[in-house]
Design a protein that fits this description.
single chain, 348 residues, alpha+beta, Rossmann fold, 8 helices, 16% helix, globular, SAM-dependent_MTases_sf
Length: 348
């Protein structure tokens, strides 16, 4: 895996009628370059722009897109970059597109064509909210951790890399998506025990159903549930969070991808601004965090990813951890990023 210094901005594009219950969603953005993936019924097209130069793509038939190259050519013929659409298909729940680049592999889902999983080829860190999920094991009791909305397994890869003794229980509604994740994202490797005894157990089904419960409860639950580019509407209801609260063991925690202001991934061009970090009360604009705060009064913390790293809101239940200790217990970029969590002030 490799972290790009000039990477991707994936913009939503409607594909027609949607039949999705998407597990996780985000616009992925680092800096100046952007790629737009848009898929009509019979073709895949990519548009690339670098600075003010425009690059147009060649189209390939999506019905036979496996391992076809999509060449990006600058108008003046000065540059050419090659991409591969490894698979493009529709399941009962998702429009599934998997794109391979020289530096990363991405899973695009549903009509929004947002990135739901990404794997870099020379470095594990994604510089987005998936990294934040890997900090959760440091602040929960020993025990199983659930991932509701497994997608291609980006969070599971990171968590087992940092915490190889974890027992992860991953839930995903789409069997075909899991099959593709095993084929293209190495998910099957996580389903084999590590030397330290850790493993990912994959479950197919509704992540909010009673069948998710386990005896003794979860030490932690990661929630990354989206439909058609927005947080599932159930996650804006207090009753949903009270039900999830009952699935935790004592001192267990939830960590939640809450999307943007309206529950969607909210990415714009530009660099991070102080208003886009956890330094103000903008969490009040996010309906998911407001519902969480009512279910866990005085027990919710929040942060907002910088504008260049997705701009999603994240929420964490339980008392605000002691940040110095939390920082010392994690590694890589997490040592700094965990310090950005702030408690939610009581809201009316």
């Amino acid at each position: 895996m490799a972290l790009l210094t000039n990477s991707l901005l994936l913009l939503p594009q409607q594909l027609g009628p949607s039949r999705t219950q998407s597990p996780a969603t985000i616009h992925f953005n680092h800096s100046q370059r952007c790629h737009r993936f848009c898929r009509a019924t019979s073709s895949v097209s990519l548009w690339f722009c670098n600075g003010k130069r425009k690059v147009k793509s060649l189209k390939t038939k999506a019905s036979k897109a496996d391992k076809q190259e999509v060449k990006l050519e600058e108008k003046k013929g000065e540059e050419e970059e090659e991409f591969q659409v490894l698979t493009a298909m529709k399941s009962s729940y998702n429009d599934i597109v998997i794109v391979d680049t020289p530096k990363s592999r991405m899973l695009l889902l549903d009509s929004s064509q947002n990135v739901h999983s990404i794997v870099y080829k020379h470095q594990k860190w994604t510089a987005s909210y998936w990294d934040e999920f890997a900090s959760l094991p440091a602040i929960v009791p020993e025990g199983p951790i659930a991932i509701l909305g497994l997608g291609g397994g980006t969070a599971a890869h990171l968590m087992l890399d940092l915490w190889p003794s974890l027992q992860l229980e991953g839930w995903e509604i789409d069997q075909i998506l899991i099959d593709k994740a095993r084929e293209y994202f190495g998910l099957s490797d996580l389903e084999k025990p590590t030397q330290a005894g850790g493993i990912l157990n994959v479950h197919i089904g509704d992540a909010l159903s009673p069948s998710v419960n386990i005896s003794g409860g979860y030490a932690g639950i990661v929630i990354d549930l989206f439909s058609d580019g927005k947080v599932l509407p159930q996650l804006q209801e207090v009753t949903t969070w009270l039900e999830l609260k009952d699935q935790l063991m004592p001192n267990g925690r939830l960590m939640v991808n809450c999307g943007g202001v309206d529950g969607a991934s909210d990415v714009r061009d530009g660099t991070a601004h102080p208003k886009n970090t956890s330094s103000d009360d903008s969490w009040l604009q996010n309906s998911t965090i407001k519902a969480l705060s009512k279910a866990f009064p005085g027990q919710v913390s929040w942060k907002k990813m910088p504008q260049t790293f997705g701009e999603n809101y994240l929420a964490l239940t339980g008392p605000l951890p002691e940040l110095t200790s939390w920082s010392a217990a994690v590694t890589g970029p997490l040592t700094a990023s965990v310090n950005l969590w702030r408690p939610c002030e009581p809201c009316c």
